[in-house]
Amino acid sequence: MKSIMSLSKLSPIGLVMLIGCSPSYDTSQAQQVEASNKQTLAQAESSLPHKAVVYQVFTRLYGNTNTTNKPWGTIDENGVGKFSDFTDIALKDIKSLGVTHVWYTGVPHHAVINDYTQIGISNDDPDVVKGRAGSPYAVKDYYNVNPDLADNPANRLAEFESLIARTHQNGMKVLIDIVPNHVARNYQSLSAPEGVEDFGFSDDNTVEYAKNNDFYYVIGQDFSVPDAINGYQALGGEAHPLSDGQFKESPAKWTGNGSRLAKPDANDWYETVKINYGVKPDGSYDFPRLPAGFEHKSAAEHYQFWQQQDAKDIPNSWRKFEHIAQYWLAKGVDGFRYDMAEMVPVEFWSYLNSHIKHAKTDAFLLAEVYNPNLYRAYIQQGKMDYLYDKVDLYDTLKAIIHDKKSTAQIAVDQAKVADIEAHMLHFLENHDEQRINSPDFAGTPEAALPAMVVSTLISRSPTLVYFGQDVGEPARENGGFGQATRTSIFDYVGVPAHQRWMNNGKFDGGQSTEQEKALRDYYQRLLNLSHSAPALKGEYQELDTYQRKQNVVGYDNKVFAFSRFSEQQKMLVISNFDQHNGKQFSLTLPQSLLKAWQFNHTETQYMHDVLSQIQVVYPIETQADGTAKLEITLAPLQSMVMVL
Predict the structure, then answer these.
(1) Where are the strands (E) in 202-243, listed by range?
(2) What pTM was estimated for this model as a whole?
(3) Which residues face 273 on adjacent strands?
(4) Gap between the Cα atoms of 267 and 623, Å rounded
């Protein structure tokens, strides 16, 4: 959570099937290459542990076939996707991308404008709801799901449970959001199990802070709706019984992003209220601290530590979120994506995640953290499995595409996280970020393919792909609250490029352009390779610095090369980020890499490109100084994934 250009004219077939020049052709070698390619791709079904591929779907948008896209359109005008749209055909299509985990975004019941009073759900006030469809990060009921997503809203939980089962039957695991930092201002759970109190139910709201209060209060002041800016009107100015510029909340609560004002700013997360985790207003802590050295202890040891604490020392909010997590695990959810995790103390994460791992040892725990100084604390003490690699690798790759940084920065960024690289999830798109195929990012989907290859293959960490990314969705629509370049998470809209691929539920690309189909084929091959190639579960050695020190002719600030290798497989990845110029150079393999590879210098060794669909063999030429060279020719935007 964080608060247009035409498609490329470059040949899609050319971009997908580009190969280097100066190859050495050999029929027997080509046959070996073909067999090796098949073996590499077949590793997806092997017993080796997989490098995860997470497919994020914005659940309300994924299955929507309506193409109206009227700004501020209603659910009837613009349509909405349903749980039932994730048919076996749809799930098999997702799986075909190499996906191991599906992150269903926007599932917990959040504030919406649609009227569901007939099934007992209270109406939400447009003055404290962003957009008509509502923010998925303003959760109203943690024990049920968004009624918009159900064919029968009264049966919505059972419909989601069926989706969990279908996803598992199709060989993938299920992730949903937990948003621990804040909840909707109108939090009211209709579905909480007996004995579970709503957030704030037992709060003493006569004081700003108390350890077991769920919220913080602005004593003596009532909440006021923020003053609108830039001509904003709730629901685009449409009349609504509750849209009167007022929302009753007395006393006012602190806003989700930490504003202590009874009348927050329009840029604040005013639709939410901040949860109290036992952090006093002065910033001091009111809960047990982890002892020194616990960054080296296992999740099981963390669990034992919290079991030994006096129950009265654990804030109520901690216990409530632990109960919520266990509730969803019991329904078959396999893990969680945590929104704005760095706004919640690390001890809480130790408590919550160790309890989750105690119940489900293989739970997948992903956190949104943007401060690199906190990475190790949240992984080692907070027991997160994965964090976003946003404020280094993602930002660098985007800057390279914008000609603002050299590819040399990639090696620098990767070195910063060398000790935690397997925990740093990589992405180029998610619901918060601009679409690749927007003018503010790459302008064309092909322009980011080298970045996608590097991001996907450089480490053992998972790769996240946002739905529509694989067919070049440009997000040109203004949904109403949400604007172009990002697919709106606040409005009822369609996603045109994805809709063309979806082809009214056939998921066969029947309406897609040739460019979109070629792009998806590229993603499909890359992502399947990423979690099946043995080398990608092994070691990493960057080759960029060595090429620059050796002044390799033709190797410049638009090229990046590195090696991934294991006992089973030796791999080179070479990418050309230049959109206009090809590159030709002799890639030098240093002695250190050849030693790690246990390279046989006594006979000619060959490499082939497992990303390309054309079988070409490239000889490695050993040198008198103990190094080796590989002649590389790259077309604009080409990447090669070479296997020995």
Answers:
(1) 217-218
(2) 0.93
(3) 183, 255
(4) 61
pLDDT attached to residue 20: 31
Among residues 430, 562, 527, 466, the alpha carbon closest in space to that of 51 is found at 527
CB atoms within 10 A of CB 595: 10
CA dihedral 400→406→411→417, nearest 10 degrees, is: -50
pLDDT digits (tens, 9 = 90+) for 460-500: 999 999 999 999 999 999 999 999 999 999 999 999 999 99
Determine which of 3-17, 186-200, 363-377 has the lowest per-residue pLDDT on average: 3-17
Note whether 191 and 218 are within 8 A (CB). Answer: no
What pLDDT, on the 0 to 100 scale, is given for residue 508?
97
By the 10 Å C-beta count (0-12 exposed, 13-18 middle, 19+ buried), 75 is classed as middle
Asked if 288 contacts 381 with a C-beta cutoff of 8 angstroms, the reply is: no
Contacts of 105 (CB under 8 A, 6+ apart): 56, 57, 58, 59, 136, 177, 337, 431, 489
Who's near 283: CB < 8 A, 6+ residues apart? Answer: none
Q: pLDDT class for 36, splitting at 50, 70, 90? A: very low
pLDDT score, position 1: 64
Q: What percent of the chain has a predicted confidence (pLDDT) above 70?
A: 92
Report phi then psi at 60, rounded to 5: -70, -20
- Residue 641's beta-bridge partner residues? 573
User: What's the pLDDT tens digit per position in 243-261?
Assistant: 999 999 999 999 999 999 9
| Residues 192, 359, 363, 50, CA torsion sign | negative
CB atoms within 10 A of CB 362: 9
Map tokens 């909405």 to a residue: 80
Report d(CA 39, CA 609) in Å as an integer.
Answer: 14
Token pair belonging to 22 = 């100066």
Band of pLDDT at residue 602, cut at 50, 70 and 90? confident
In this structure, how many other beta carbons lie within 10 angstroms of the beta carbon of residue 347? 23
Largest alpha-carbon pair distance within the chain? 84
* Span 75-89, pLDDT tens digits: 999 999 999 999 999
What are 299's two structure tokens? 């999740």
Q: Report strand pairing: 252-253 vs 364-367.
A: unpaired
Q: Which amino acid is at 39?
A: Q
pLDDT for position 466: 98
**Structure token pair of residue 3:** 């608060």
Q: CA dist 452 to 76, 330, 428, 637, Å? A: 37, 35, 7, 11
Q: Are 339 and 181 in contact (CB under 8 A)?
A: yes
| Rounded to 5°, angle at Cα 412 from 411 and 418 | 80
Q: How many CB atoms sit inside 10 A of residue 34's CB?
A: 12
503: left (phi over 0), alpha (psi -120 to 50) or beta: left
Q: How far apart are CA 61 and CA 475, in angstroms?
A: 12
Amino acid at position 374, single letter: L
Number of Cβ atoms within 10 Å of the Cβ of 218: 21
pLDDT of residue 33: 42
